[in-house]
Amino acid sequence: MSTFFNIIQPISNLPVFIFLNLLICGIVIHWYWSIVTGNFSDRAHRWIQRFGLFISILIIGILFVRQWNIGDLLAFYSIFSLGVLIFSLVKGHKEIIKESRGWFLSIFLVFFIRGYVYEPWQIPSGSMKPNLEVGDFVLVNRNAYGLEVPFTGREKVFSKGPEVGEIVVFFPPHKPTVPFVKRVIAKGGDKITYINKKFYINGEIYKQDFVEKDAFGAELFTENNSDDKYLIRHMQRTAINGDWVVPEGMYFVVGDNRDNSNDSRSWGVITEGSIWGRADFIWLSWKSGEWPNFSRAGKVN
């Protein structure tokens, strides 16, 4: 897979991306023309389909390399398929109407739900144990902190910041193309002290109460930040203490698996603009070597 992305890298720019999508539109227009003029050929159509598949793979590769929002692409094809549907309705081309209606409804539903409401994402590490496990598939609420504007690179309007205690998916400063998931512990203006595995925010302790030990011998606690209560995990490791002051407009994020999390304690705070969305629900779990299941499905705490 890395070889594929290395090949895609040199052509991963906006002009090539636009050109490839125009080719896909051209294929659809050619199909439309061949149907209505009676020049449709099964053999030619198969070759054009293969060419279209190749172009589509290149488009998807560029999306991954550049970390562009697939919702923008779905929005474009929703508009394009609607245009084809309207044109066929005006011209009375019944066969085209049937096909384009299916295209539009399918693409639009995927665009609306996947692109700008909830986006599925798989948990890649154990930094949020016990609340999020490796292999959990979560639904990320894209509009929790504002409405995302299409074709703007995730710019938002009516934006607002996350609340302390919420679990956010974001792009950290040291890896701006790799999404991370952590819990917001403090926000702009807060003074943080971390000592003996406990957080003090503005002098107030986040109280911890022991619950039990897990199967690996790690200790589970409930942590209370006065507004929310959630589980955290302590391992038999020495904690590194520290003090921080969060700049205005910034957020301090930490993993619930406190002794095995690469977070703000290591690389600093995150900006509001780097936040992708809020992790709201687990909808599927699929651990390596196991069958997918819904045993952990439910609201993320």
Q: Low-confidence spans: pLDDT under 50, at least 5 residues?
A: none
Query: How many distinct helices?
Result: 6
What's the CATH architecture name of the largest domain? Ribbon
CATH class of the largest domain: Mainly Beta
CATH superfamily of the largest domain: Umud Fragment, subunit A
Radius of gyration: 24 Å
Q: Look at the structure and give the mean pLDDT.
A: 88
Query: Which sequence of SSEs, written as H and E, runs from N to C?
Result: HHHHHEEEEEEEEEEEEEEHEEE
> What is the number of independent domains?
2
The portion of residues assigned to helices is: 25-40%
Strand fraction: 25-35%
The structural class is: alpha+beta
Shape from CA axes? elongated
Largest sheet: 8 strands, antiparallel
CATH topology of the largest domain: Umud Fragment, subunit A
Number of DSSP strands?
Answer: 17
List keywords for this structure.
301 residues; alpha+beta; Umud Fragment, subunit A; four-stranded antiparallel sheet; 17 strands; elongated
